[in-house]
# Entry
Amino acid sequence: MLIVTAKMPRRKLTLGVAVAALLCCCAIALNFGQAVGREVSASTLPSPKGIKDNQDRIDYLSAYGWQVSEEPLSTQELLIPQEMDDSYTEYLALQNGQGFDLQKYAGKRVKRYTYEILNYPTGETGVQANLLICKNTVIGGEVLSPQLDGFLHGLAMP
# Structure
């Protein structure tokens, strides 16, 4: 066994401990910052492309945390208006806030699939999720309550 001893002035020892503590704090802060970065990247939105069938639509909604009915309540073919007047302003803003640009699809036919949400956080029943799909790509969507005093918000769970 080898024991090494050294004589060091108290001032240098205190400075060395302070520097070591500062380096530890920096390493911990850097590691925490990387962990937060991983958390954000892990919560990225699902890809809107490649939505070909009912199971793909259910999986897309479940990526937002929604449990929905096995089959859509309704399926409708819609025509996105060529020119959108002021009545579309709020709806377009909602879609843009989610990264969807409906104006790119002006004049195109799309399908809207409506599902019943089974796990809305407030426990409210009858809440619905709509997905607008054009050529196997989700181009818009929302969650809504069809009640008279209902609500409308994006696909993200509140």
The two ends are 63 Å apart (CA to CA). Residues 10-42 form the longest helix (33 residues). Residues 144 and 150 are 7 Å apart (CA to CA). The chain has three helices and five strands.
